[in-house]
Amino acid sequence: MVVEPGAVVPPEAEEWPLVRIDHDALSDGAIQTLVDVLDHAWRKREPTVVELAVPFAELKAPETCDLAPYRLDPRFSFARERLHFLVWANRYDARRDEPRWHHAHRAVRLGASLREPGDSDGEVVLPDGTPAWIDGGPRTSGVIEGTVVHMHQLDAESLQPERWSDPKEDLAADQLAAVSYPGGAARILAPAGSGKTRVLTARLRHLLADRGWAPGSVTALAYNTRAAAEMRSRTGDLPMAQIRTLHALGFDILGRSRGSRPRVLGEREVRDLLEQQLPVRPRANEDVYAPYLEALAQVRGGLVTPDHVEHQRDDVPGFADAFDQYRDRLDRMGAIDFDEQIYGAVEVLLRDPETRRWAQQRCLHLLVDELQDLTPAQLLMLRLLSAPTYDVFGVGDDDQVIYGYAGADPRFLIDYRDYFPGAASYLLEVNYRCPPDVVEAASNLLSYNYVRVPKTVRAGDDNGSAGLTVEHHDETHLGTRLLELVQDRLASGAGPAEVAVLT
Fold first, then answer.
1. Roughly how many angstroms between the first and final C-alpha of the chain, as a whole number?
2. Is residue 369 a contact partner of residue 221, using CB atoms and an 8 Å limit?
3. Alpha-carbon distance 341 to 173, whole Å?
């Protein structure tokens, strides 16, 4: 419940904890503590009274950040905007005479009608005559008896009530647990061969088909176009599903903010721009611009300052000064390059509240594939998109980080709750791809990773076939034995392209 300073608290709320929001509480040093307190109360549905001692307009005013994205940590958030959400998401407004449930009035604007206060089976009547409650708490199951319409449905201009049907797909027990979890953020640790894509697409189908969530509020994000195509092929029965790559979503954000779709430059055009403004000249048998391309990626993907990148390397003289000049040149051309689809989108989300709100409405529930491969800039983008609830279903494996050079970090999965508060955690325990001896050897090897989530993985099917053979030979016999093995494979019918030799 929200009350004015000094107001008499209604009898039913007299024993509830009271949180006061004044100008001191909104200071940089205090606001995060206040956010943490109210976030806990919202997630646990613990009643509290908020005494609002600042003007409503001051709390509601959109925030912006003019800092360059490379000066921010992926944990960055707009604390006051999040506080505004936590104050009003699931609270009655008792600043005037009778406490007012604002979500019910939002439902009326969509076609529902109000019921009399105190009715025991709902606060509105839906157009089909069904009494219903309007819920502003975390979107989880089994909390409220009766018909419930969640506020996120209202955000999508829908009065569709919540449904709680079980997933229809034939899933293993560990996969089913992840797919059917009640709601909120979740980390799904998916070791190799455990069916991560199947789990992600099954979760998408479960939300849209089994639980009736508005399609426009749920977005599945793939790491690249090939992965997005694979997701679409598995969800052909869901033509309304939003399946995007991170870069495609960033491109849309830039287009929305600019009012037109920017032109994406190819690498040749990018090199031409660099050649025009950098203090280096082509040299025989040397790619003098490749280091600058790498440096651009370090700044915009890894969120490293241009000064630091130039000082860290010895092959990009003048880069710190050239960075802003390069981006200004792109802007004057009405163009972007590949990395700008993420970095530029982050900049828009920081500086353009209207576009940020537009994007957030399409990302109320995010499903993210290959989370372990995200760069810091991509993770920051996800957090800006998923705020203020941070409802992100992230699928990945901290043992498969292969883009560390670009800033990807297993800690993004290990410390998942730091980025997506209140997240549940599920482990897919079965590798369906490899025989038991391969799974055992791989698990042994991965146990030497010093930054990881401890996990136990088992093989899905022990058919008795050997998947791994280890032979020991000294260097005088290795080549001969290797030749024999390759010849045996070819003689047994394998094609040359099916035989790989690692040396």
1. 67
2. yes
3. 38
Q: Do residues 452 and 409 lie in contact, with contact meaning Cβ atoms separated by under 8 Å?
A: no
Residue 67 burial (CB count, 10 A): 11
Check residue 150 and report its DSSP letter.
E
User: Does residue 83 contact residue 34 with C-beta atoms inside 8 Å?
Assistant: yes
Q: What is the DSSP string of 243-268?
A: EEEHHHHHHHHHHHHHTSPPEEPPHH
**Rounded to an integer, what distance in angstroms lies between the CA atom of residue 463 and that of residue 434?**
11
Nearest partner of 315 among 295, 334, 342, judged by Cα: 295
Distance of CA 353 to the CA centre of its chain: 19
Total-model pTM: 0.93
Place of tokens 């010849």: 487
Q: Which amino acid does the sequence have at 354?
A: E
What is the maximal distance between C-alpha atoms in the chain? Answer: 92
Greater confidence, 475 or 243?
243
- Measured between alpha carbons, how far is 51 from 431 in angstroms, rounded to an integer? 53
Assign 221 to helix, strand or coil.
Answer: strand
Distance of CA 474 to the CA centre of its chain: 49
Residue 142 has pLDDT above 80, yes or no: no
Q: Report whether 245 contacts 228 (CB < 8 A).
A: yes
The phi and psi torsions of 227 (rounded to 5 degrees) equal: -65, -35
pLDDT band at 463 (very low <50, low <70, confident <90, very high): low
